[in-house]
Each structure stands twice: as C-alpha cells, then as structure tokens.
Write a structure and sequence with these properties.
By secondary structure, this protein is α+β, with helices and mostly antiparallel strands. It is about 20% helix and about 25% strand. The strands form 19 sheets. Strands 15, 16, 17, 18, 19, 20, 22, 25, 47 and 48 form a 10-stranded mixed beta sheet that branches.
Length: about 1500
C-alpha cells in the first residue's frame, strides 16, 4: 500500500556518522510521519517523474528516527542515489510491499583482486540474509577486508534491480581475477578454411580470442592467464624398432596400436596483462612455423637417421582430456602457494572441431570425477560449425577387435560454446552444420546402426535404390521437414509413429523382437526408478516383416526406441552406452544378461526381454542386487551363431538424446545453482537458444509426470521429471530424475537448438555454488551407504586442554564449533543441501534445519546436511553435544590412476623436453574429519597438528636482504650493462642483517614492543640492552598487552587461575606479576644492596638516564665476577638487561632474549669481547641453574639468537623460588625461536668446494619449527581465527630465510593483511618479504606442475680453451657455478618441497633465489662436462601487491629479462667473460684446497679421483 509522497534527500553513510545517528543506515525517516511502518518492513521507493526508477529498502531499527527533523522527507544513502542516478529533492512515492512478493531467487556477486574462500562466501551469504540489495551495491564484510558488488538479481525468471535476500536465495560468486588456462588445440583443422574463407586458426585467434580479451577489458577482468598450444602427432610406423633409441622415451600407443606423441608449448604463463594485443601477435608468430617445427622435430635431432613420417591428428583424435587433467593437477592443489590476488579456476579448450572427441574410458572416468570433486569450471569453445547432433560427444575407444561398436558419452561437466564470426557469405544465406563425406564403394553395402557409419545415415543407403531404405521405419523426408520447418519435431515424430502402429501379432521363434531400455549417463548410478508409469505393447510393421515393441508391466523410467535393424551375417552386435563414468561390468559382477541374434529372412533382429535387459543397480548397491531387490536374471537366447553377451549398457541416439532420462545424482546437480531460473521455472543457460517453437518448462516441486515424455496440462514439456513410487509404508514419495544432455539437465535438446558463446562464464567465471538440492532418500541411505557417527562435547574437551596451554585463549563455544564444522566442510568443497520443507529428513529428524525438542526440553536442535560426490554429512547440534553423521558409499569407485608422458616447451626455452604426469581421482571418503573437528574444537592444539592429508592452506615466503646500491646501478642512472656486479657481504653487513632480522622477528611474529631503544648495534655498541625508567620498568611488552596490578603468582591449571584470567584486545591475557618488584628495587632505581664487584668502566665515559633524570656512569663487571654477581647486574633497573614483559604467557618476570644477553655481557664485563666467550659464561650459569630456558627444560642449551630464558630465583636473597613448567613443547608452540651464527662463524667463509658437496637438500641440514600465531590481532573477523608458522631454525645473513604461513581456520583477506603488514615491517628493517612457490622449478615428476618447467642454460665453453681442462673434478665445477650464481646476485636457499617431490631433486643440487626475489636457480650435480648447466625458473607468485619502493626490481619484467639475457651471454662466453671469470676463481692458487675425503656419499657414482 502507498504510504506517502515525499521528498528525497541523501546522506553519507560513513563520513557523517558522528554527526548524524542515522548515517549508518540505508534509509532514514521520521517515525511519527510513518506510524504504520515497523522494523523489518520492506518499502518500495519510486520516482514520480518519467524515469520511473524504483528500488526496495528494508526498515531497520535505526531507520525510524524520532529526531528526524525534515518534514515530508526521507533520506537514503548517497551510494543508492548514485546507483539509480537520482537527484536530491525529487518527489518519490513510499510504498509498503509484502516481503514474499519481492524475494530474490538468485543474486550474483562479483569481486576482484582478493582471495575469497568458500568459508568466507558462506559467512557473507549468512550476513546478507533478510536484507535488501540492489544492482551495483557495494558489499563489505569482515571490517571491509572483503569487498563485493552486486552484479545481477533474478526473481520470478526475470532480471530485477533490487529485492530481498532470504534463506532460499542462491548466492552466486563470480570472480574478475581467476586463474585461467587457455588451451588451443593445434589439430590438422587449424590449417583448413571455414565457410567464410578464414583459417580456423585465424577464426580462433583473430576472432574469438580478440573478442574475449576485449570483453575482459570492458568488464574490468584481470585474470591470471596461461596459454598453451597442444597437438598430437601420429607416426606412420608399424613397430617400435623403426624409431631411434633416443626417440622412444616419449612414445605412446593408442588402442589401435598407432604410435604417437603429445606436444605442449606454453606461450604465456601466469601473466596478468591489461592489454592482450601483443599476445595475439605472439600467437600468430608461433603459428607460422608451428606445424613444420613439430613434424621435423626429431629429424633435426637425428639428421643422419631415418625417422618415421609424422602427421598432425584431427581434433577428434587429439589429446583433449589430457589437457583438462593437466590443469586439474594444478587446480587441485589450490591450497598450496595460495595467491591472495585471485579466486576461481577455469579451463578453456579452444578447438577447431565440432565437439566430438575419441577418448579412453578410464581417462574419462578420472576426468569427470576430478572436475566435479574439485569444483573446476571447464569450458569447450568450438570454432567449427555446430553439428546436427547433440554435443559435446565423447566417443570411447573400442579396444575390442571382434566387433565394431561405437560407445559414447555426453559429458554434462563441460560447458560448450560455439563461436561464429559475423562475416556474411555473399553467395548464400544457408549455413551448413554438417559435412557430407564422399560415398565410397564400400558404403554400398547395408551398414548396422551400431557401426560408426550410423552417424551418417545417408551412407547406409543403397545407391541404386531410389526409395532408399524402403523397409525403414524412419521417414527421412518427414524428418528433414521437421528439422527445417518451425514446427515441433517431436510432434511430427509422434504422428508418424501413430500412423505405422498395427495390432501386434503372436511371437514365434523365427519372428520376434524385444526393446532395450536406456540407462543413465553416470556409471555410479546403475539404477532407474521402478515406477509403474505405463504399460503398452506396440508393433511397427513394414513390408513383409514387423517389429514388435513390448514394454513390461513395471518398466524403468527409460524410454523405448523403436528401430528396425538390418545386419550383415558377419556382424557381431553389442549394445553400447553413453555413460560418462560407466565402470566396466566386469569390475562389479561377472553375471551379465545375454543377447543372441536370430535370423529372419536375411535380417537380424535382437532378442531379449525388456525386463531382463534393463535390470539396473541402485547407486552403490550390491552387485548381486537389482533395482527391485532381486538377482539379475541371465537370459539365454540361442541363434545359429551361438550366444552373445550383452553388457549392461544400451545405445543412445546422439541425433535424438531428448528422451534419454537419467537418475538424479549429487554430481549432476553440483553446478546447477549457478544458473538462474527462467520465466517457466527452468534453470536456463543464456547462450543456448532455440530457433523452433519448442518451449521448455519445469515441473514445480511436489508435482510429477505420469509418463516420460508426456505433455503437462499447460502444454509445456516437463524437464525436472519426478516419478511417483510407493514406499514400503504405503506413502507416496517422489524421486527426481534429470535429462542426459546439458549442464542443467532440464533443457531438452533439439536440432533447432543453437549454441552461442557463454561470454559470462569466460569473462567472470562463477565459483562452485554453496548449495545443492540432492540428498538420497531414506531407503537409499540404508541400503547403499555405510553410516558412522561421532559426538563432540566442546566444553569438556576444552576443559582438558586449557590447563595445558602456556597462553590462555578463550575457547570456542559449542555454537561456534558447530558452525565451524559446517564452514570447514564448505571450504573443502562440500555443499549445503537445500531440502524441500515437506521432505522428511533421515534418522527420524523433524525438519531439515531447525527442530524444536518435542519432549519439552528447553533447547533446540539445529542441523545441516552437506554433500560432495556420493559422500554426505549430517551435522546436528543439541544442547552442548554436536553429532556428526557420515554417509559414504557401500561400494566406492575403483581407484584409477593414469600415467602420462609428453613433450613440453616452457617459455624462454628453446626445445621440447620430456615430462611426466599422472591423473588419478581422490578418495574423498578417506579424509580424516574426526581429526579436523578436534583440531577446531581445541583451537589448533599441538596434539592435533596440521598434516598434509588435511589439505590446509599455506603461503611460503623468503626473507631476503635488500642491496639498494647494486639495484641503482642496474636500474637507475648510469645503468650497468652487465649484471654480474654483486659482491659478498662484509662482516658489518652481516651483523646488521642479523640485528634487523631479530628486530623483525620480535615485532612481527612475537609482537614484542621495545619502549625506548632497539637491539644493540654491535658487540661494542653504545648500549648493552634496552634501558628504561622506573616508571615503565626494564621490560619489553608484547603488543596489545594490558597490565594487571601486582598479585601473587598463580600456577597454570588451578581453579583460581581460571577465574582470574582476562582476555586482552590481542587475545593474550595480562601477566600475573610477582610482588618481587617492590622488594628488589629502591626509589633511586638501583638494587637495594650494593654491587660488590661493579666498578666504573675504564672505556671512554658513557652515561645513562635514571628515573630522576640524573646521569649515572655505566658499571662494568670484573673478569672474575661470579654468576650471582652477573645475575644481580642483569637485574639492575638502570644499567641492567632489558627484560620481556610477558603478555598472557605465564613466565617468570625476569625473562630475556639470549642475543640481548650476549650483547649486554660483551659491553658490561671485562675480558668478554666475543659472543663465543659470552655464551660460555651463560652456559655455565645454565648448568648452575642461575638461568633456565623459558620452557623449564633444564637440558635446553644456551643458544645465540632469539631464544627466551629467565633468571631463576634460587640462591638469590629476597627472591622466592619458582617451580618451572617442565613443558618444552608448550612454549615452543607460542614463541618463534631462531638461531643466529656467532661472529666467529661470520668471519669464516663457509662457501668452499667441499662444503657445497656436503649439502643434502632432503636431509636435516635445515631444521624446521612450528609456532602458533594469532592472525587476527585487530579483531576484524566475525569469528575466532588462528594459524601457524613453519620456519627455519637457523638464520644466516648470506642465505634466504624461509617462513611459511599455514592456516585452516582463518579468513583469506585477514591473512593477506597480516602478511602485508609483515612486508611493510620488513622493509623498515632493510629486508624484503618475497612470496615463493613450494616447487619453484617443477622438474619432470609425476607430482609436480605439469605445465611448468625450468629453463636449461648450458655452459658450452667448459669444453674449450682454459675452461676445458680435462682434470676438472665435480667440486671444482660446482664451486665455479656457485661463484657465478653469487656474482649475479643469487643467494642460497633451502628447497622446502613436499616429500613427494624430493625424488625428483638430487640431494646435492644447489638451490638459489635471486636477491631481488624474481628468479630461482639450480646448480645440478654434473656427471660429465656436457651435463654442466644451470636450471632457471621465474617467481610467478610476485605481483604488484608485493612491489616495494626499496626494491623496484621486484616483479619488474624489464629487469628480469635483462638478468636472464646477460646470464645467457655470460654462459656463452661473450667477450671472454666466462673464461676470465674461470681463471680468477677455480684456477686461482688462493682458492681453497679440495679435501676429497669430504665428498658426499651421494657422489659415489662419480669418485673424486675421476675427472669429468
């Protein structure tokens, strides 16, 4: 109803929030002027001018204002007025509307340049529930760390401008910055011409790609793109012996025994360009000699050996599924090297074909399940003409030799597009959609419908017969008329069948036929609904014979296909299937229905019964059980040729797949909710449109059809079929089935259906939807699934773990744990199941999501149902108990692994190298959810450490020094043309790097704040530690800490301690300070008793400020001072050591850092001038228990670096003894402790010929530690979050230091802010934090990235001149390569790759990263002079986000290619640079001697006494 006409004004939502109380609301109005409005009402605001703009807003509590002074005026947010182009003070009408009428069906949100996990999507969706949104509305979440914009709104099948988001609204997230792989199939058709006279390559690149890049630019998309050209080459050879030995390493054979090789050339890798026109030019340049290069690839390598002739395969015979699996090998590891700049994954295959591919069945099974499980979008773009049959179409390889049968699949998991140019053909307006092959002599014979030629029925016509198939039941003329006329082909087909119907005659042994029922397309669903839908018997008679069609009394939901089949006597006929994941029958049961052929007047008609031929199994049911619960019958029919076995698959006509109906499954509905519903209620794909009159509708929920293919009462065809079945209890339930063809399963395919390009999917690809609508019925859950459950009691679990922690953190409540269990499953690819309200949940629950306890208990139970594949979880919360019920299939899929080898051409490389990959499905049912749930419940306790099988997120980084002097020479004024100008670090530089690194660890990771001064600048610096006044105490506090008044110390775990804990803003509670402070210190800031062994320093006088501001001379300990004297001096408030004021961590108040103590002692004690001497003294104090490691572990040695120790109270007058924790692991999980080398080690050059060879990258040379980290220190998130850091235990100033952030309970955007804050702090410390891949080089390995590889740089000059000395040893060559790497600015790093990759890495290979962070280098072990080389790789994780002012080279392409070009020139010995450097290093008599006895055992194959 219309409430009032009023004026419209605007207010700023954020800038004036302090001036106006309503400024945080979308709508503000006077409550007295609108007395009928109340909170949560929906109002429509419409303009009264010609623009007729209207939008919806929700009335909140803050919208109704008593202090809103303007009369007859309402105020809205300025952003809303801008979005609808409204002007202030215009007349508007305010109308109250019913919320049900304005509910939204789906909302599409877009986001850019950020990582948005599925957990964040779900929480964002929940925050939008019961709110109004409008087109282009900007949405912020988690304190504005997540930003989205409304892209499209759907309601009632129409696009609207605003509406109300409800719990039933589907939220679709689309990313403008995804990882996109563009695969261009360079098949033989690429060099052919289309109907417009263009090469298909020109049509693909100049046409489709050019238009795609323009759409990216116009929509603001900035995807990270990899472009790969791929081809398959066949060789004309009958045996392997015809190939050279070196050529056989990558040869493969197909099912026909033909030899082939697959080639992949990466043109663009992980690039983000604003202008892609240069890429189009590069593609054209590669195309010029691409085919010639491939065909003569081996001939160039073996010029004197005859190589079999090669030819490029057609598109249908190409490596289509292999490229999809290659991208899946990358996408399925999305949690490793997690990029913060992008979200979403998309594979696009551009082919000159028509969407038909010949594939292997096992590889199809693997591909389908991997795509569905990983939620990866897969698009197929065909630049060929759309055929008249349904596509995409996968033709399975026929590996049998005794018969010729085509077996197909129609993959619903591929989004198909057809690109056609806008060129007009002048001579005709008819566009052909099929190529007619020329008729050969062999085609004069009659051909079986089950043979490959059936795809072209015209080829089966006798050329001399004018009538053409006179006895055929198919009227081809009428069929053609139905195609090209705007009338329904199904109606015409039905009318023709009715005309030919006759009364069936009695079956005899020599004259009968049976029908075969179709099965579903997914092999895991060998079942149909056993509904008594109809019963009919039909006979089609033509000529002298008739074809009998008979249906059983209880057929399945499949549909009969009347056909008259003509066979040659030599034919062996088998039925075939379109199963996308059809497991071979032998893998389940050896019992198969049999079918024989009976001769009828030189014609062969199939024998069998409809009931016997269509026995199908339920999903996951026992092999011995049919869909009716009995055993499948084995039917024997004997003909003159004996028995033939019929597999449990039936042929489906690709020219008429509209009647193929399959059972509804979770896989089939996984992506359905990204599609909007059209006006008829059907999920629609907007790039599919029909030129005929067929209208597609969907059956409303709860309704069902009485026969497959029947027309509904309103004349439309039902797409969401539901068959009615009587349950055992007598009630009627429905079972959903769906169509075989199409991504939605609700759209009927007809020859009049035209497919365009799905530009939305290619421009702003959608993420996997959060919801689905499939859940097995109760009977299926009981018979086909294994059920297991467990319960969680978070309160009881946390009560046990709180007492064991070094730092108190508020435990998660039961409600928080419950929602986190749902959130974690969504993050791992699960979807919440939206179930109809009238449907009964399993396990006798009362409703799907909320159930009130019917026993009268004053609590409520919440439930969530989630699914992925055939795995379902039910999570319920009742009072303080969480119950997790898991359903997994009784008969899971068989494990399939496909090994694959190919030739790969990396960017900036000059050759195809052999590489390997394996494709396999993941056993999702083996995921340890019980372990993860306890990890969440205990807040990441050390008892539940993160393991690889949990698939946690991680981000690897290196801490590198910044050499600004060299960078200015390479990039600034007076640019140096050569890049080998880096020099080793000097001693003072190494000291500075250590001090800056420790400062970074203190402030960023451990969050300790130094009140006045920083870490001492050296062993003889101005100060030996941080000195502060009495007011602040000689302590350093952790950031965001709150101090409590002095109180007696309370032990952890006591009841009193639990009552007195208070959480600070950072999540860490204040320390429980000891009363010792007042006992020890006097008002002057000195100790209460005099220092007997302290005398003024004999050094130049230095002074420090005390509390009163007076100057006090620095006191120095004598060389013979006792340990007790040192302790008393350390505790001196004025000149003592700087202590850590612990926040939340229950440690002794006199806690200090070992590096601080060493520097303090060097400056305070006579005779102590080195850190080694200071460590000896502290080791003695540790043995005498004057100091103890903070964990209380007395066996812990004193180490130099950031290690925490405290002064023990024993034997110190006036101090009470303290009982240590004796829990070593407790503190190590809370503080980051790192070793640093002593100064004596810094003076010694550790880089020698032998030390290089004694480094094992897979052994314990680099030890790793883990520490707990609070990632959300600013409390931006709507939940409690945490993470972990894995780091190296030793920091060396001349090597890279690795830090890896790991998380499973954190928001991606908050992790981004945390890491960026670290990066800014590192820059202040003259360091840089650089992201690095876990596997930078992707060496040929079954577990590495199949589409990345290193650049091989050879050193040819080692075989010539002075550098070609024949007495070279491995150590000398590696030392030379090491020095070359250092001169070009590379520093050593540790290869922290997963264990699966270590067998691809030789244990003594040397790994380097460039000091700019842009490049990586490997010096491999060489077996001969010819093998001496470098392996080069780019850091593809560096983006604009990581560029800093102090290192302009980071991410600069010009700098990166300059270094590579100069490195290649150096290795090529241009201007004798390599030779001169060789003579100055290896041949230098001052070079360190080689101790051959220290060579690593891994080099036993190359003894040191031997030469290269």
């Amino acid at each position: 109803m219309t409430l009032k006409h009023c004026k419209l004004t605007f207010h700023q939502k954020s800038q004036q929030s302090q001036q106006k109380a309503y400024a945080s609301e979308d709508l503000a109005l006077c409550s007295k002027e609108f007395p009928t409005l109340k909170e949560n009402d929906i109002v429509e605001i419409a303009t009264t001018d010609d623009s007729s703009s209207s939008f919806l807003l929700k009335v909140t509590k803050g919208s109704l204002r008593d202090d809103f002074t303007p009369k007859d005026t309402i105020s809205i947010d300025q952003a809303i007025g801008t979005a609808f182009q409204l002007k202030p003070y215009i007349d508007v009408t305010l109308t109250k509307v019913d919320a049900v009428c304005v509910e939204l069906d789906s909302v599409e949100l877009t986001f850019k340049d950020q990582y948005l996990g599925r957990s964040e999507m779900w929480r964002l969706k929940n925050s939008l529930t019961n709110s109004c949104v409008y087109h282009k509305k900007k949405i912020e979440f988690c304190s504005s760390t997540i930003r989205c914009q409304v892209h499209e709104l759907w309601s009632g099948g129409l696009v609207v401008t605003s509406g109300l988001v409800t719990e039933a609204t589907k939220i679709v997230f689309r990313s403008l910055t995804s990882m996109v792989y563009l695969f261009i199939q360079m098949s033989s058709e690429m060099w052919e011409f289309d109907i417009c006279g263009d090469l298909y390559f020109e049509k693909a690149v100049n046409g489709f790609l050019s238009k795609l890049f323009k759409k990216w630019k116009s929509n603001g998309s900035n995807h990270e793109v990899t472009i790969v050209l791929f081809s398959r080459l066949y060789y004309e050879a009958s045996s392997l012996e015809r190939f050279p030995e070196a050529m056989r390493e990558c040869l493969l054979t197909d099912y026909k025994g033909r030899f082939y090789e697959d080639f992949y050339r990466v043109v663009v890798q992980n690039e983000k360009y604003e202008d892609w026109r240069n890429t189009l030019i590069s593609l054209r340049q590669v195309f010029v000699d691409y085919r010639e290069y491939l065909l003569n690839f081996h001939q160039r390598k073996f010029p004197n050996i005859k190589v079999p002739k090669a030819y490029v395969s057609s598109a249908a015979q190409g490596n289509f599924l292999e490229v999809l699996n290659m991208s899946l090998n990358v996408f399925e590891k999305h949690f490793v090297d997690r990029s913060f700049d992008r979200t979403g994954q998309l594979s696009v295959v551009i082919t000159p074909g028509v969407g038909v591919f010949e594939v292997d069945r096992d590889l199809t099974n693997v591909t389908m399940q991997r795509i569905i499980d990983n939620g990866v979008g897969s698009d197929l773009v065909c630049v060929g003409e759309q055929p008249l049959h349904a596509v995409p179409l996968l033709k399975f390889h026929n590996k049998a030799t005794h018969h010729d049968v085509d077996d197909y699949s129609m993959p619903h998991w591929i989004n198909l597009s057809f690109y056609s140019s806008n060129k007009q053909v002048g001579y005709a307006t008819f566009v052909p959609r099929i190529k007619l092959p020329s008729l050969s002599d062999s085609s004069r014979e009659t051909i079986s419908v089950f043979s490959p030629q059936w795809r072209n029925p015209l080829a089966s016509i006798h050329l001399g017969d004018e009538s053409g198939w006179p006895n055929s039941v198919y009227d081809f003329d009428s069929y053609d008329d139905s195609i090209f006329k705007p009338s329904s082909s199904q109606l015409a087909s039905k009318q023709r069948r009715i005309k030919h119907m006759k009364r069936p005659k009695t079956l005899v042994d020599s004259d009968f036929s049976r029908i075969f029922m179709r099965q579903n397309s997914e092999p895991e669903i060998h079942a149909t609904t056993s509904t008594d839908m109809y019963s009919s018997t039909t006979s089609i008679a033509t000529g002298s014979s008739s074809l009998i069609l008979s249906s059983s009394t209880q057929p399945s939901s499949a549909i009969t296909i009347p056909s008259k089949i003509r066979f040659r006597k030599s034919d062996n006929v088998y039925s075939s299937s379109f199963g996308a994941l059809n497991i071979e029958p032998g893998s389940f049961s050896s019992v198969k229905p049999r079918v024989a052929l009976t001769p009828i007047n030189d014609r062969w008609i199939k024998e069998g019964t409809a009931s016997g031929a269509t026995k199908e199994r339920h999903e996951g049911s026992s092999p011995s059980m049919s869909s009716h619960g009995g055993s499948p019958k084995e039917l024997d029919f004997k003909g003159r040729f004996g028995n033939l076995r019929r597999p449990s698959r039936s042929l489906i006509n690709p020219f008429d797949p509209s009647h193929a109906v399959i059972k509804l499954t979770s896989n089939r509905r996984r992506w359905t909710h990204i599609f909007p519903r059209g006006p008829s209620g059907t999920f629609i794909q907007q790039h599919h449109f029909s030129t005929g009159l067929n209208k597609l509708d969907i059956v409303p929920e709860g309704e069902a059809t009485t026969a497959i293919g029947n027309t509904m009462n309103d004349g439309t065809h039902s797409l969401s079929r539901q068959s009615i079945k009587d349950s055992p209890d007598g009630s009627t339930r429905t079972k959903k089935v769906t169509r075989l063809w199409g991504a939605t399963g609700e759209q009927e395919w007809t020859p009049a259906l035209t497919t365009g390009v799905d530009w939305k999917s290619l421009t702003i690809p959608a993420c996997l939807p959060l919801t689905t609508d499939y859940f097995p019925d109760e009977r299926s859950l009981k018979t086909d699934y294994l059920v297991s459950d467990y319960s969680l009691l978070p309160d009881d679990v946390n009560a046990d773990y709180i007492s064991q922690r070094a730092i108190y953190r508020r435990p998660l409540t039961t409600k928080e744990v419950f929602f986190e269990l749902v959130s974690q499953r969504l993050a791992q690819g699960f979807q919440t199941v939206i179930r109809p309200k009238h449907e009964k949940p399993p396990i006798k629950q009362q409703s799907s999501f909320l159930r009130l306890n019917i026993l009268g208990i004053d609590d409520e139970t919440e439930e969530y149902f989630l699914s992925i594949g055939r795995i379902f979880h039910q999570i319920s919360l009742s009072s303080s108990t969480i119950t997790v019920t898991r359903y997994r299939p009784r008969h899971p899929y068989p494990a399939i692994k496909v090994y694959y080898k190919y030739r790969f051409y990396a960017p900036n490389n000059n050759n195809f190298e052999v590489s390997y990959a394996d494709f396999s499905t993941e056993k999702l049912e083996n995921y340890n959810w019980n372990y993860l749930d306890h990890y969440i419940c205990t807040r990441g306790d050390t008892d539940f450490a993160l393991t690889e099988n949990l698939k946690y997120w991680r981000f690897r980084m290196f801490i590198l020094p910044i050499n600004q002097v060299v960078l200015k020479r390479l990039m600034g004024e007076g640019v140096s043309p050569e890049c080998n100008i880096y020099e080793p670090l000097k001693l003072e530089e190494k000291r500075s790097h250590i001090q800056e690194f420790l400062k970074f660890i203190e402030t960023c990771i451990n969050r300790i704040r130094r009140p006045n001064t920083s870490i001492p600048k050296g062993p003889r610096g101005a100060s030996g530690g941080s000195v502060s006044s009495m007011g602040s105490g000689s302590f350093r506090e952790r950031v965001n800490s709150n101090q409590l008044p002095d109180r007696p110390r309370i032990r952890s775990g006591s009841k009193l301690a639990e009552k007195q804990r208070h959480e600070s803003a950072s999540g860490r509670i204040s320390p429980l300070d000891s009363p010792l402070d007042s006992k020890i210190f006097s008002l002057s800031g000195n100790l209460g008793e005099p220092f007997p062994d302290l005398t003024p320093l004999t050094f130049p006088p230095r002074t420090e400020n005390t509390t009163e501001g007076e100057l006090v001379p620095i006191m120095c300990l004598k060389a013979d001072a006792t340990f007790k004297d040192i302790v008393i001096a350390m505790r001196n408030q004025a000149t003592g050591l700087s202590f850590i004021k612990v926040t939340g961590l229950e440690l002794h108040p006199w806690t200090f850092v070992s590096y601080d103590a060493i520097m303090w002692l060097i400056n305070r004690m006579e005779g102590v001038s080195t850190d080694s001497k200071a460590m000896e003294i502290f080791d003695g104090m540790l043995n005498e228990r004057f100091i103890i490691h903070a964990s209380g572990d007395s066996s812990h040695k004193f180490k130099n670096g950031f290690y925490i120790y405290y002064i023990s109270n024993s034997d110190i007058e006036g101090m009470e003894p303290l009982i240590p924790h004796h829990d070593n692991g407790m503190l190590h999980n809370e503080w980051m402790e790192v070793d640093v080398p002593c100064e004596c080690e810094l003076n010694i050059d550790s880089v020698t010929k032998n030390s290089l060879l004694n480094f094992d990258c897979s052994s314990g040379n680099h030890k790793w530690k883990d520490v707990y980290v609070d990632v959300d220190t600013s409390r931006k998130s709507d939940r409690q979050e945490w993470g972990h850091i894995r780091y190296q235990s030793l920091f060396k100033p001349d090597e890279a230091f690795e830090i890896t952030v790991q998380w499973i309970q954190a928001t991606g955007s908050i992790i981004t802010d945390l890491v960026q804050a670290w990066s800014r702090k590192a820059q202040q410390c003259n360091l840089q934090l650089v992201p690095v891949p876990t596997d930078p080089f992707a060496l040929p390995n079954y577990s590495s990235d199949p589409l990345r590889g290193p650049i091989k740089l050879t050193i040819d000059s080692l075989t010539e001149g002075d550098a070609g000395d024949s007495s070279l040893t491995p150590s000398e060559v590696m030392y030379f390569q090491h020095t070359v790497a250092l001169k070009f600015g590379f520093v050593r790093c540790a290869p922290h790759a997963p264990a699966a990759l270590f067998h691809a890495l030789k244990p003594n290979d040397l790994h380097y990263v460039h000091s700019s962070g842009n490049m990586f280098l490997i010096v491999p072990i060489c077996q001969s002079v010819a093998d001496v080389c470098f392996l080069w790789s780019w850091n593809y994780l560096v983006s604009k986000r990581w560029r800093i002012s102090s290192n302009p080279a980071l991410g600069d392409d010009t700098f990166m290619f300059k270094v590579l070009h100069d490195f290649k020139s150096f290795c090529a010995n241009e201007n004798n640079r390599l030779t001169n450097f060789w003579n100055s290093t290896v041949m230098n008599p001052q070079s360190p001697d080689v101790d051959e006895t220290l060579l690593d055992s891994s080099l036993t194959s190359v003894p040191a006494s031997e030469t290269l």
